[in-house]
Amino acid sequence: MRLRLFVLLIIASWFGTGAALAEKRVALVMGNSAYKNVARLANPANDAALVGGMFRKAGFDNVDVRLDLNAADMRRSLREFAGRTRDAEVAVIYYAGHGIELDGTNYLIPTDAALETDGDVLDETVALDRALFAVEPAKQLRLVILDACRDNPFAKTMKRTIAARAIGRGLAKVEPTSPNTMIAFAAKAGSTASDGDAKNSPFAAALVERLPMPGLDLRKAFGFVRDDVLKSTGYKQEPYVYGSLGGDDVPLVAAKPVVVGPQANPDSEIRRDYELALQLGTRDGWTAFLNRFPSGFYSDLAKGQLNKIAAEETRAAAAEKARQAEDEKSRLASERAKKAEQEKAAAAAKAAEDAKAAAEKAKQIEEAKAAAAEQRRKEAEAAAAKALADKQAAEKALADRLANDTKPAAEQRTTEKQQVTDTTKVAAVAPTSTPPSLSPQETAKLVQSELRRVGCLAEAADGEWNASSQRSLTLFNKYAGTTFDAKLASFEALDAIKAKPGRVCPLVCNRGFKADGDACVKITCRAGYRVNDDNECEKVQDKKPVATREDAKKRDTERKQTEAAPSKPQSAGQMYCDTRTCRPVQKGCRIEIVNGQYSHREVCN
Length: 605
What we know:
By secondary structure, the protein is of the alpha/beta class. It contains 17 helices and 17 strands.
């Protein structure tokens, strides 16, 4: 009986593998950062590389990543992709860059667009309908993801040829007419999206985390993406999905097949209900969950979520009460109420404001508790999943051993020989890991951008791998301890540079300047100090004059003349002293001065 069950499971796994291989999935990823007529966007090129890698890891048969496309390149890429979707079951287009809405129609903006007038939109951009036309031939799923809801700089400078023509903020709502078609916006219609402060936008980061979860339906996956983006942007950006799918689950990555049937997990039903209540996020949903599951790990998590909702309700009530108190204060002031009433209203307003602040603090505490509980839940689920996988592996090993024990010796040897042959064939045809399908110029541009980020390249990233770029890679090898060939830009060098979180090459400044972050600033010394040759402040030494022999002789002559000079003459009747004696000056007489000295001759009238 066990041998028959094992053979049936092997046959079922063969059929499942054949069905998976028969399903063809293709993706086109476009990221426009280097706009020529407006400021460069930092994230789209990084987001496109990240999302393209996600589709490759998800097992897509063909993933085409295109960066910084002009109008002709965008149209050619969509035309070529439409040819690949004719025999595909799943077709996905991801676009990151600028977009614009004109009279209710959405357009994707290439890097060479100028858009001086509203009429140029029809000639210089690519309509969103062109992307929908490209995915139309796919048989099972048609998915278009737009990370293009940024604040559009073209709309601020564009001239209107018709005053009544509407240019919207963000992108307009779209309702697909084809079945099994979904259009996901980074922000809902009429609003704009944020690039964030990280290397990737919040929307792209959430997509890469949620979409490739095995067996997770796309509608639920985009619901988790919405929750993640709302939290990361402070509830300012809400992604939105337009279109509809059928009743069956449509995962981007199929659930992993299980060879040996596992034992039913008693917490699987509770976990599923908990995730539904978490997605609903209301008091009624959590109350219904607790009524059904009053105790246990997930029940404690649900109580924490209820406390979080209660804190939010308390904060909202306090805010409303504060607003009412402020309105009452304004009303009393406008009606020239008595001073006592105004003071009472002011006190009530202050008390309400204090209550609001306390409620805000309580809400933050509950949110922190809920986040910590949610983290514990994820860790517990990961541990349970690992334990279940270990159990399944053990049961499979036991089944294999029992099956081998029941086979005759000759049949067992034949089976082992066939397994060795199959293993050899699989190893012979196993695909090797290949780098992304980028041109040498695009690869060089990515390596130059990363070298510039770590401080090894001072020039702009133009895609030309010249002598300056080679010196920059050589400088990176010196300070990072790597040995990449500087004559070419390789994906191995790109991965190694991306792995460095900050500056690698030191910043060199001229004399009198010092490094401050990524810039050179002038060194300023306080009064009495100056910058020396080592770029340090030192005190200025006062130079004392050196006495010479002539100076000494001059000072000696002046001293002798002073000692030989007589005292200053006095008026008549007073004493006058020279170098020999003192006597009174006669009336009507004076002492003459000759050659700067006093004469000994007395002159009288």
